[in-house]
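Dear colleague,

Following up on yesterday's call, I've attached the two folding results inline so they're easy to grep. Please treat them as preliminary; we haven't cross-checked anything against experimental data yet. The first protein's sequence and structure tokens come first.
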Amino acid sequence: MGDLLFDSFFGLPLHPLIVHATVVFVPTAVVAVLLAAFWGRFRRWAGPGPMIIALIALILVPISTQSGEALEHSLPRTDLIHQHGELADGLLPWVAGLFVVAAGLWWWNRNQQSPGTAPRWALPRWLVVVLIVGAVVTGVGTTVQVVLIGHSGAEAAWSGVVTT
């Protein structure tokens, strides 16, 4: 699978197009996972939703990275573009961790019954704490990484552009 697949769509660079989907799904996954971690009612209502959103984000990240690398090969080599690419390479582990936490939260939710009924099996308290801490750590790490990537991408795209 070469860069040709991730190069362009009807003559437009694919990267800016696919990044918009990534920029929507990754933060949405963070919010959904954090809500599922801290709000039982949301967790019950959403079911596998946060996990599915995190999975879509996980799929979009490498597509965004590949399309960015394809675009990078057609642009002049600059430090700003290089920095943006380096930061982008660091997003996948964060989103993968977010997906793992989302899957754990979904599993926890499946264990729980309606309020007031006994769970199917007792989940150790330490595991619940690990899921909640994991949601916070991966949520914050993912958000910071997305902000850094977005800022560096904007600098790379708009540096040298004169506005009046």
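Below is the second protein, in the same order (sequence, then structure):
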Amino acid sequence: MPRKPRYYLPGVPVHIVQRGHSREPIFFEAQDYATYAYWLGEGAQKYEVAIHAFVFMTNHIHLLVTPEDGIQISRLMQFIGRRYVPYLNHKYGRSGSAWEGRYKASLVQDDAYLFTVMRYIELNPVRAAMVVRPGQYRWSSFCHNAGIREISFLRFHSLYEKLGKTREDRHRAYCDMFEGTMDEGDIKLIRESWQSGTPLGNDWFKERVQQRLQCKVGYARRGRPAKNRVKGL
């Protein structure tokens, strides 16, 4: 079966997911997480990819990024893989690829779903019952976006900058988004999108993507666009 192509557009956010082989762990101790983060930061700078959100779970990772040039995402992921996998294999006496096939990705309509995807990513440890609040999990972007601790390789999206006039206002508005539970329909739609490679957005966004790429992208069912509410998303 031929590989399903992945599509990117300059300036359009992308949700990336990559799992460990057979869902086995890819991180075992703090040094592993820190090593992956280091190469992510180096690669993001090298290939001019803005990282807005991330979470490193025990056996998979999520990223929300915006490339200046669409092809740079593939180069970024190759850059990380060619460094982190040998590190992992050497350290733990393993061999072969650490990943379960190719990473999955979906384009994201920023004005409709950007913050919803950020919440989806940063609430992963909460949904997995690893922590009670997202700020308690060390290996995610929540602390940076909430103003608790700065992470040097992260870049705020322009929509984040519009959350408030001051840095404190923006941090407060971002934290307010995490009050209440996340809509189960949004969770399902986001999962369907990254699993199938379907653009996450309304019909106008999907049609615009297909016009720019001149081909059909993905096959997930159509769904309503999420609203950018500050509370109770």
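For the second protein, one point worth flagging: DSSP finds nine helices and four strands in the chain.

Best wishes,
A.L.
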